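In response to the reviewer comment on reproducibility (Comment 2.3), we provide here a single inverse folding case reported in full, input and output, so that an independent group could reproduce the run without further information from us. The structure tokens appear first.
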């Protein structure tokens, strides 16, 4: 369902993306609304599916998952059965943070986290190489993250 957003909705969303644990009282002050009006707007945004949920962002270094690898995967075919089987199995790998169906040279692009190159080798051998329908894989290691955000422009 599409929902029309005004400038106040945009301010609410921008604030919540940066400070997800902000209280309704603080949020209402930040966006210059009464607490009840602010609460109703947030509730409307949640019910409309604009706000999908609230999360804690974790530091990958402190959890020994600081190696980021982008894996391009080409499948052996493009039938619904091949695509469905691949997607069903890739969802079960917790080291895969993102999986995108692509247009271009690869069928899928995965963002994988690992402790180090040895850990990625294990993930590759035990999990990625066993995914159904995989014909080719090309891995690229991130040397440094230049920009990372979870905030969508509103």
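Designed residues, in position order:
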């Amino acid at each position: 369902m599409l929902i029309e957003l005004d400038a106040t909705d945009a301010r609410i969303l921008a604030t919540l993306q940066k400070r997800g644990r902000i209280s309704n009282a603080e949020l209402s002050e930040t966006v210059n609304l009464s607490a009840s009006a602010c609460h109703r707007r947030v509730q409307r945004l949640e019910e409309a599916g604009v706000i999908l949920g609230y999360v804690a962002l974790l530091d990958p270094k402190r959890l020994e998952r600081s190696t980021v690898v982008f894996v391009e995967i080409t499948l052996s075919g493009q039938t619904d059965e091949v695509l469905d089987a691949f997607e069903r199995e890739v969802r079960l790998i917790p080291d895969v943070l993102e999986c995108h169906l692509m247009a271009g040279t690869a069928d899928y692009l995965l963002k994988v986290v690992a402790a180090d190159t040895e850990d990625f080798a294990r993930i590759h051998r035990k999990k990625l190489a066993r995914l159904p329908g995989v014909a080719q894989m090309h891995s690229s290691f991130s040397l440094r993250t230049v920009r990372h955000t979870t905030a969508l422009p509103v």
